[in-house]
Amino acid sequence: MNRNDIRIGLFGFGVVGQGLHTVLERTPGLRARIGRIGVKDRTKARNLPAELFTFDRDEVLDDPTLNVIVELIDDADEAYRIVTGALRRGKAVVTANKKMLAEHLQELIELQRETNTPLLYEAAACASLPVIRNLEEYYDTDLLEAVEGIINGSTNYILTAMHRDALTFAAALRKAQELGFAESNPALDVEGLDARNKLVLLLAHAFGLVARPEDILAVGITGISDLASSYAREKGLVLKLVAEARRLPNGGVAAAVLPTLVRPEHELARVQDEYNGLITQSNFADRQFFLGKGAGAVPTASAVLSDLSALTYGYRYEYKKLHQESTLALTPTDAEADVLVTFGAEHAPDRADFSAIHEYFHSQELGYYLTGTIGLDQLAQAAWLRLPGISIVRLPTPLRAVTTAPASETGPVVRAAWATDEAVSPL
Fold this sequence. Notes:
- By secondary structure, the protein is of the alpha/beta class.
- Among the domains are: 6-126, Rossmann fold; 332-409, Alpha-Beta Plaits, CATH 3.30.70.
- Helix content is 32%, strand content 24%.
- Strands 3-2-1-4-5-6 form a six-stranded parallel β-sheet, with helices on both faces.
- Strand 1, helix 1 and strand 2 (32-38) form a beta-alpha-beta unit.
- Helix 3 runs parallel beside helix 4.
- The longest helix is centred in the first third of the chain and has 18 residues, at 98-115.
- The chain is globular and about 70 Å long.
- It starts with 5 loop residues before the first strand and ends in a 26-residue tail after the last strand.
């Protein structure tokens, strides 16, 4: 590969693909140009010459004049075939497909080693935030204790619109879709699955831990209740969807994606609209905060552009911490969180799942809530977690090692002072 002359085989010419074309035209210093574009829809009108496009994947992958493959499609299975096919042909790859990466990360790491071919994916983590390379390089010898952040711009836009503009969830989602921040099928975003996929990537580069997405608890924002929102306003807290990974004293790691109440002075409380924010906590550098746009065509394309530039000087991920931290593992049985659960008379959480119940309250108008401490493993396996009418939000305390006594050893339930309706327990 001529590092100073990049010829791109591009897959996908949607929002981000067109954004990449735009930023390449405005970056004359980088000698990179698009040589061929693989697309699926034969009927869609496009603003580039028709001969630039093809509907045959192999026509792009086998083209000897193309030395870098950029994959920007929304089909994770097809993206996997494209990326692995390119690596096996010795072509460097840049991708933004976090679902594909999270589901096949260990295999893709091994394939890079076998083929001696780089795979870069800065755009898959936090769009415009330069997160992956910082975790790989800046923190390569500084022991990271935690990473936490807002890493999905779509859900942050929706939550901002609900809180600041008093929109309903449905109205905020429609606006996010109109602006191109959310997909027409937004399930990956609003159910917390996109953030979970990104957290898999952060775990690998922050801690040297390759996890499966299904091993990480993820709760989205679709079930957030009016009572949870009222609780947040009454307490002066801000509701965000937060991904967090934290070392535990026993050598394990706790990781989860949960709607979370944050205090107004917290860095993440100030992350608005489609922006992402990531906090790192380390032994030497202490606490650092990254802020940038996490959704949209040009911000995401800027991260792809950064990866293309990195390829010109031979950059590749070394996954240094995978060698340094070979025994590190997710240990949800050793971690717990403080949560607010709101519910109705039809379905209720099982009190036995909690190691402590701190507050309990019933309002005739809004329903029931409790606050308590629960293990991540117990929460992930709770039969009531996904039942209709149940909403769970993490309180403003970090994930931590299990410290509390079992429920049978705790003191009495404490009556909430937040409101004055009579407490009538359905538990």
